[in-house]
Structures are given as C-alpha cells and as structure tokens.
Protein 1
Amino acid sequence: MAGITRFEDIQAWQTARQLSKLIYSLTAQGAFAKDFGLKDQIRRAAVSVMSNIAEGFESRTDAQFINFLGSTRASAGEVRSQLYVALDCRYISQEQFNQAYELADKSARQIARFIDYLETHPRPRRVSEETAEYNTDV
C-alpha cells in the first residue's frame, strides 16, 4: 500500500464510485424508479462497495482492512445479482446491464487483487498518521 495515503487513491474505490453513479442513474428512470425495494437494495449495495473500502482503509490494521474488503467484494456480487433481476424485469437494457455488470465485476477483481496484496505483504500494524505528533500534556 505504499503511496496510498487516502482511500480516494485506491483504484477499486474509484471504480466503485463510477458504479454507484451509474446505478443511481439507472435506478432513477422508468419502472426501475418505481420498484422501491429493488431500487433501494441495489443502491445500498453499490454504495456499500465504496463505503466499505473507505471504512476499511481508515481502520487500525490491515487485518481489519482485509475484513472490510471481503464485505466490499460481497456487495459487488450483490450488485451483479440484482442487475440480473433488473434485466429480467426489463428495467434496464442489455447494454446497460453489460456496462453496470462490467463495473461491478471490475471492482470485485480489483478488490480481490488488493486483498491478495495485503495478505502477501503483511504488516503488523498500520498507522495512518505516521508523522503526527501528539501532545498528551493537557
């Protein structure tokens, strides 16, 4: 993770952001917008991908981060599954399905590679503010 100082620098987060934007756009149209259950669920799953990356990055250890990334990958799978429902209900076209599916799949692949990296380059503890000085004399 050398060089990554903010979760916004993580490629998987950037892809997840694109996915969330697309999901919000698709779910705001036509019959999809009126299917409150599916619309809300797929939106929550897409946002969860972004959010878990950010939350994990801000956690105290790489072990915690890896756990968050596992949840992140599961949420990307949930988005892919729900896209099939949207396609089958004809809420989205095959082209829209392909575009959203590719982003969700790409995010999941990036997350899997990131997990592999963190597991093969373990560090006992990660501190976000390595150069911070704290005054405990109050």
Protein 2
Amino acid sequence: MKNFTHYFYGIILCVAIGVVALFLSTYIPIGSVAIAIIIGILIGNLVKPGKHFAKGITFSEKHILAFAIALMGVNLNFLILKELGVKSIAVIIVAMSVTILSSLLLGKIFKFNKKFALLLGIGNGICGSSAIAATEQIIGSKEEDVGLSVAIVNFLGTLGIFILPFVATFILKLNNINSGLLIGNTLQAVGQVVASGFSISNTAGQTATIVKMTRILLLTPVIFILIFAFSGRNKSNTATKKASVPLFVIGFVLFTLVPTFKLLPPEVIKIIGKASHYALIIAMAGIGLKITFGSILKDGKTALVIGSLIFVIQIIFSSVVIFLFFT
C-alpha cells in the first residue's frame, strides 16, 4: 500500500491536469494535449510539486505514455489507401520525407540538438503530438524537448487552420480537390485538417481528411525505420546494440490490425481510441511538469524558428508538387 501511495499523488495530479486541459480545449483551439503540457509547465515551475509527486509523474510520462501509444494503433485503418491513387500516395510519402530531412538540415544549420530537430520534423511531417509521442522514446529525446516540440507543432498547426485556406484559394487559386490535398498534406493534427478543409468546401474537407489519414498510416514504417536507425545509439553497453522493438510498438502494430480487419465493432474501436487520447493527455501533463522555464528560454526560441521554417518548407513543397502534377 505504501508503494502505491508513492505513485498515487503524481498520477492524480497528471489526471487532474488532463481533465482541466480537456475542459479548456473547448474554448482554446490549440488542442488538449498542448494545453496539458502548458498547464504542467506552469505548475511544475510555479507550484513545484514535492518529492511525493515525483514517482507518479515519472510513471505517467513513461508508462501511461507507452499505453497510449499502443492503443493509438486502433486509429489506423490501412484500407484508407484504397481511396487514393498511386500518384497521390507517392506525393504524400515524398513530402513527408522532405519535411523530416529538412528538419535535420535546419538543425545542422542552426547548430541545434539533432534529436530535438528530428522531433519537430516528425511532428510536422506525420501527425503532430501523436507522432512525437510515439517516437520520442525510440529517438531517446529529453522530456523538455518532447514538451516543447508538441507545443510548437500544435501552435503552428493552429495558425495553419486559418492560413492554409487563404493560401489555397486566394493566393494559389486551387480547386477544391487540390486545396484539400494541400491542407491534408501539410497540417499536423486531424482536427486541424478537418477544420481547415471543410471551411473551404465539403469536397476539400473530405479530400484533406483522406490525405491526412494516409499520412498518419506512415507513422508505422517511420517507427521501424527509427528503431533501426537509433538501435544501440542510446545504449552504453555494446551487448545491447542489436535492434530491439519496444513493447509499446508491438502493441501499436497489433492494434492497427483491429480496424483494418474489423476485429471489433466500431463502437468498441471508438472507445479504445478515446482511451488512447485521454492517456496521451495524462502522459503529456507528466512531461509538462518536468519542463523548466530555463529549458524553454534556452531552446524555445530557436526551436520555434526551426519548426516554423519546416512548416514553410512543407507548404512550399506541397504547393509546387500540386502545380506540377495535379493542375
């Protein structure tokens, strides 16, 4: 019972932050995950929870996060690929690759932490908070980098909700389908894509959503590429250099089979998806509680510049490709 109380206070604190974040997300358009991190940062730095909270906070940002990532696979239905042609899928893959590679290049130019820059690229290139959460343990990133990456990517995506429709319709003068392709291939979160795409038209919204879901599917191969690329780099013992697949990744892959092969009723799949989302919010609250104002002042400004440049590159590349191959 004593061991349980060591975890109880920290977990309850993270859950409470998550509940507040969910409530505030109905009024603030940056999303509950980012709000949970921001609240966690404020409490962690201003209130400074004592040692009785430490183990529970660590449990939340590690183990509850792993649980959330495993369940996250239930949101991926590979049958969505039937909705797109080979040309569209190729463009999505290339655009994602360009986004991630540009993050590494910009990190080198700015002499910025490589893993931090990579998180920004993955968040922008695939599916925002979920992609960062699913890959940060594989990359071996610091909690501060993860929290700042999520906050920056969500901030840029929120701006994109309003910027992309204007760019697509007034500047580039794209038709509804190509507008949806641009939005779906650049914005970070599904909610952002839906809000931005349907603000133009139903056709643009539907196209953007399908394209976005295809980008999310790319998270699975990216995870395995990162496992191979970072295998042994975060270990000091040479005996552990062989590639190993974390348990949460195995769970993630297994859960992708559920919607693809309709192994469970849609209602159950929806419940599992919501559980994943809530667990992710709790985990991100834990990460926020560990971020110091010092780390924000040290890396936040450069990270925002790099994240913004990645987003601009993403938009320009997708726009050029659409003009060359789809108009």
